[in-house]
Amino acid sequence: MKLFKKIFLGAAVFGLVASTDAFAAGNKIVMDGSTTVGPIAKAFASSFTKSTGVQVTVSESGSGNGAKSLINKTCDIANMSRSMKDNELAAARGKGVNPVEHVVALDGLAMIVHPSNRVNALSKAQIRGIYMGRYTNWSQVGGPNAPIVMIQRESNSGTQDSFKELVMGKENPISKRAETQASNGAIKSRVASTPNAIGFVGLGFADNSVKALLVDGVEPDARTVKNGTYPIHRALFMYTNGQPSGVVKQFIDMPKTAEGKQIISEIGFVNYY
Amino acid sequence: MNLGTRKLLDRSFTALGIGSIVIMAMTLLIVLVPIVTNGLGALVFKGTIEHRKMLAAEFNRGDRAELERQTALADSSRKPVYAMMAAFEQELTGMDEPRRQQYQQQYAQVRSAIQTLLGPIPGDPLPALTRSQYGQTRWEKAEERLHEVLYEKKWDYSNPDAPAKEYSVSRAAGFEGTSLVKLFPYVEKNIDRMLMPEWTLYWGFITDSSVDAHIFGGIWPEIQGTLFLAIGAMLFAFPLGVVAAIYFTEYAREGFFTSVLRSANSTLAGVPSIVFGLFGLAFFINTLKVSESKSVLAGSLTLAIMILPTIIRAAEEAILSVPKTYKEASLSLGSTKWNTIVTVILPAALPGIITGGVISLGRAAGETAPIIFTAAVSVGSAIGLADVFSSPTPALSWNIYNLASEHEAASEIRHVQYGMVLSLVTIVLLLNLSAIVLRARISQKLKG
User: Which of A49, A120, B387, B437 would staple B391 via disulfide (CB 3.0–4.6 Å)?
Assistant: First the structure.
């Protein structure tokens, strides 16, 4: 049985090594939800851990999952790129959870196309037409003679819900031909590699690998989102169960601090406070 | 069948066999070579002075005096760049309105390109994000950024029937007749001196935590999380699996009940892993509430259920392959059934049991789907052993996916992603190797 002893010894040594390393400060914050809020949450987490020593973990699984996690009390903060729906609020109350909304930042949904696409601007009505399947060729909206590949987000996504609400309206369903991607990053890389594609991402995700379109003649940037002239704008939220206290409150208040504001604008989103 | 045909058939079968092995080896090579070469790129690369500055500031590592000397040297060659920019800014204010507007936008692009290349411009407020506090840390990225400083990417939309073509325009030409035109050849010529690339072996990639969501730093939290999850899964699944196998082979009477159990076990082995993931979320976290949030514990339990059928099957086979005579000899000497199992059958079956276990360990380390909802997060620090019951953890398999698709700067940090892939492949390979070695040693001991 010498071998068993060896195995046990090995396990014990491993455990010892692991336990000496990075003991948590007793406090931790668990965040779940939106991939749009993800970059802000991750950057906040990194700076928060550095300044306070509190461990912060961030999952990016979509706004719908964030809401579910909060309702099931498996996260401290739910990141959401839309506000909670009535049925989610009802489910939360049913489980004794009281979701409190905190605005983190403002965001414009950037309509992105491949840089080789000659289209520079679309109206909201044209975008709606594209996603309803009324326009199927770029030439119908002033582009090259090429079929339109439209890309949407999965049903779990807050960005998808915002898009439906702000652009499509209730009675106009998105065409079944639309392709689905599971995150902002995935839409961006799909559009960046597909010359005929169109997609929508949070403002912080639009970089120079894709071209952000003018919508109703307005360019999406910090100024136009802040003053509301860019037509597809929305707020990004963090939800807590009840009014936050302690380190969670400190974290939630970060968008109000000078550092938090700087982080938000450096990532490419727009300050609310 | 005559002898000739038989020989021919025999030969062609051999050829087919060799052919398929060659194809398999080539596929493995095609898969592994890019993983290894790109993955090593995360460890061994030409690091610029910005990388050394980052290491000193974030991890307190490196030779301070040498770094200061190099920084001074690099700064002295950067100085003319900033001086030229300041001079041009001065020149801008003196221009008439239409000309100024024409240059202002172009200059803003140049300025931000220089900033991404060399780091914050002196006099600007320090950025809050760590990623923008440094210039390019890797030489190959710096070369790409240099191209952006020197050339502007444009698209030719002139032909309405064809897709637009990309072309580059020299930025220097755009600033013809101003003082800034000298900047471009200077930057191109002195880029080496400004960034001081050196071949760097960055061991910290394995042992450091990530800085600013994997943009800098290493992948230790992911490696540790993977090991915790896999070992945790083993702690639950291995004893359970062996006990179940003993029951199936030694105690269970063949009948309806046992055959149902057996087929249930086989079915479980074929269930897709995402189903286990959702089950883990619904059962361990939402129903049993083993932890407040996702946690290593919940992830390990889910993985344990996933690998349990494999362990049971392997252990069963190993126990069944122990010669019947061993058992009969032991029983005839007056040993009890339990005593026989523990002292005779299990030791003889141990090599097979352990091989099955370690192969399952490799599978647990590599699975993504079961831990998405039960344990994995995209950003988090390395957790202590005391936190495994309550804290979620980053893990290699999930973070590879996250960096490939969700990360906002995915295309900037491909090297980190490849580094993670290489680490995961290496971990699984080492586990399997250790299984082979362990098996050989135990068999030898049993024989001798």
Answer: B387
